[in-house]
Amino acid sequence: MTTMTAGGLPVDGATLHYQVRGQGPLLLLIPGGTGGAAAFDEIADGLAAEYTVATYDPRGLGRSTLDDPEAEQHVAEHAGDALRLLDLLSPDRPARVFGTSSGAIAALHLLTARPERVARLVAHEPPVVEVLPDAAEHRALIARVRETFRTQGLMPAMAVFAAGLKKDGDAAEPKTEPELRLPPQAAARAEQTMAGLPYFVGRIVPSFMSYAPDVRRLGELTDRLVLACGEDSRGELPYRPAALLAERFGTPLLHFPGGHTGLTTHPAEFGERLAEALRA
Q1: Coil, strand or helix: which one is 53?
Q2: How large is the C-alpha radius of gyration of the chain?
Q3: 107 and 79 in contact (C-beta within 8 Å)?
Q4: Can you give the residue range of the structural domain that contains 104?
Q5: Which of 133, 259, 263, 266 has the greatest count of CB atoms below 10 A from its CB?
Q6: What is the mean pLDDT of each run of 10 residues along the chain (280 residues)?
Q7: What is the pLDDT of residue 35?
């Protein structure tokens, strides 16, 4: 196994817990949801054969503590955290970046705000629903999630959120395909995932899914932007923004194995596809 070192980075309003393994040009992996650095445990060692791989817990999740636990969260602030890590670990040359889900939203903001610091970005299913023609419907979904969380609690809010992400006409029940039989390491992370859900639903979802990216600026940066989706996500809400942007920019849409959580359900194949995308 590749040797890993860990550190703590003070940033404005928080302290980030990060991990570094491997050597070579920097690759920063930005997780989505509540996964934190551990979400990349099953692919980071393989990538560390080519890169210095940095993973971290986003502020407010896992071991990255907030100075004010009740602080509101903002995409620009999370992108700034990623920039601080780039400046710490690769101060003299731009880095490769991978982000998934909410982490991909932060990564898109990083790219538009500081493009000179990003050599290549692979953005996997960023749910930037404001770019969609039916964005108003998704604003209503976010409002329903917030109100349900406030009045009924976490699990009812999660049910509303999950139903809103599905394809039109899909039943609300969870899928039972084999891909959702999680690998042992992923199953062991369930406790951390549950612990972070109130913060994610209450503060990350409303802020991040209300974020409108600078589409014009992204269109000027397609030489270093790879938009990606899951093979099994077609038609679902997290798939649609990246697909729409790729079509608008006239760039290929890269497909990863699995669905929105393909990193968890298909880690080996996901890591291989990411390595290919970073080399291209």
Answers
A1: strand
A2: 17
A3: yes
A4: 4-279
A5: 263
A6: 90 98 97 93 96 98 96 98 98 98 98 98 98 96 95 95 76 39 57 84 95 98 98 96 98 97 96 94
A7: 84
Give me the amino acid identity at 78: H
Whole-number pLDDT of residue 176: 33
Q: How many domains does the chain have?
A: 1
Token pair recorded at residue 99 = 């982000």
Separation CA 232–CA 175 (nearest Å): 11
What is d(CA 142, CA 186) in angstroms, rounded to the nearest whole number?
27
CATH for 181: 3.40.50.1820
Residue 262's H or E segment, with its range, is: helix 262-265
Residue with tokens 């980030």: 16
- Residue 175 pLDDT: 40
Please work out, in degrees rounded to the nearest 5, the angle formed at the alpha carbon of residue 21 by the alpha carbons of 118 and 23.
65
Report helix, strand or coil for 34. coil
| Amino acid sitting at position 117 | R
DSSP state of 179: G
Q: Which amino acid is at 272?
A: E
Q: Which residues contact 239 (CB under 8 A, 6 or more apart)?
A: 125, 229, 230, 233, 260
